[in-house]
Write a sequence for this structure.
């Protein structure tokens, strides 16, 4: 017997409780065990004598981030900003006990800002991962401009946490754990409260962005890390979806340590050091370089009017921390003005179209195999999140992300930002 559908939106304004002190010894022990295989090394800079309240801004590579962060903050407790998927997966009561604040990705949320302020007022610690999405190919994403403004508004010390190795252990395109990857983390008090008072939001933003910049493959080569699993390239065709030989998109595939084009036969082997080798006398290819080449192709498509996204999708809604609601088939379109999502909402008989303007979509959340259901992207309103799964060819989460980010830049009418 299926449970009844709960349509009540998540209570975004409810004040988050501090982490339950009774569970902290078990949480720290669990995190210690989860990071042992990587022999986690934590480097602390300017942290001596720092006491709450303060804000922590961290890089976001993989689920391992949530094990590293509590150890970096030990012996302090903290609150964590989390997407509602975690609340739904593990239960709202449990998530609140470990100090999580619920929100939705890439949407303005005044309730979240109010709750962060409440944490600071009660002399707590708030952890925020401003990239709001795992790293697609182990490189940092542009941070929203609101980060510097939030720091200035709170007026508390700002701490940055740059983690290394988390992505290499378990990249989003293939979550199977790689052995022998060392884990490192550097936690820095970047600004004191007095520094924040003197700095502009733009100065804070620039310093935080510099601290949170990373390239996991550069780290791999610097440390001489060898990843020898025979399946190490499987799934890499999801972020690297376009063939640089023939230029065709959505034709890449992978097996074992190989990445290859199903049309022209181009083939690359992912070496143990993290570079792609063609075996044809060409220079090895960096995965982040390939990824950024694809971004430029999408930007050119947009500038020349060739970019198109108009596909059938299956729609699932997550209004709260209780249940996903299957809304059946819909249609997703993306133009220079933004997204148009046409679907039939729960309990309704006729389809409607929800608009998501480009100016309000700084980026988009991407998944390569969400809970075993395949690729998807999500679009959110303050009270609902729509998970969109493809029902036809021509859908790639990474390409949609590239287009979304570039269309946002264009909507800001700041040509200097468009590189």
């Amino acid at each position: 017997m299926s449970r009844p559908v709960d349509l009540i939106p998540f209570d975004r304004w409810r004040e988050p409780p501090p982490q339950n002190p009774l569970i902290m010894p078990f949480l720290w022990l669990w995190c210690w065990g989860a990071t042992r295989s990587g022999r986690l090394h934590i480097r602390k800079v300017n942290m001596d004598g720092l006491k709450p309240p303060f804000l922590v801004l961290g890089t976001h590579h993989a689920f391992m981030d949530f094990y590293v962060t509590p150890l970096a903050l030990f012996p302090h407790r903290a609150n964590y900003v989390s997407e509602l998927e975690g609340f739904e997966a593990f239960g709202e009561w449990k998530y609140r006990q470990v100090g999580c604040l619920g929100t939705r990705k890439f949407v303005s949320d005044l309730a979240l800002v109010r709750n962060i302020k409440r944490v600071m007022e009660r002399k707590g610690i708030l952890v925020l991962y401003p990239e709001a999405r795992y790293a697609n190919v182990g490189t940092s994403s542009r941070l929203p401009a609101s980060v510097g403004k939030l720091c200035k508004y709170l007026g508390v010390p700002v701490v940055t946490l740059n983690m290394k190795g988390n992505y290499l252990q378990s990249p989003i395109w293939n979550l199977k754990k790689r052995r022998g990857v060392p884990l490192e983390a550097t936690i820095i008090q970047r600004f004191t409260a007095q520094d924040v008072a003197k700095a502009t939001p733009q100065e804070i933003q620039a310093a935080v962005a510099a601290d949170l910049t990373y390239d996991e493959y550069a780290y791999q080569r610097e440390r001489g890390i060898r990843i020898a699993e025979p399946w190490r390239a499987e799934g890499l065709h999801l972020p690297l979806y376009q063939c640089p030989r023939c230029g065709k998109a959505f034709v890449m595939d992978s097996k074992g340590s190989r990445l290859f084009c199903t049309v022209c036969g181009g083939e690359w082997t992912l070496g143990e050091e993290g570079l792609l080798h063609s075996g044809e006398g060409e220079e090895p290819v960096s995965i982040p370089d390939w990824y950024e080449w694809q971004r430029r192709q999408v930007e050119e498509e947009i500038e020349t009017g060739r970019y198109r996204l108009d596909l059938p999708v299956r729609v699932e809604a997550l209004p709260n921390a209780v249940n996903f609601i299957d809304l059946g088939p819909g249609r997703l379109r993306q133009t220079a003005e933004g997204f148009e999502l046409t679907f039939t909402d729960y309990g309704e008989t006729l389809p409607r179209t929800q608009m998501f303007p480009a100016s309000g979509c700084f980026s988009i959340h991407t998944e390569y195999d969400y809970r075993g259901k395949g690729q998807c992207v999500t679009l959110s309103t303050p009270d609902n999140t729509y998970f969109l799964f493809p029902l036809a060819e021509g859908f790639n989460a990474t390409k949609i992300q590239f287009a979304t980010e570039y269309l946002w830049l264009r909507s800001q009418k700041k040509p200097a930002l468009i590189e």
Notes: The CA atoms of residues 311 and 363 lie 19 Å apart.
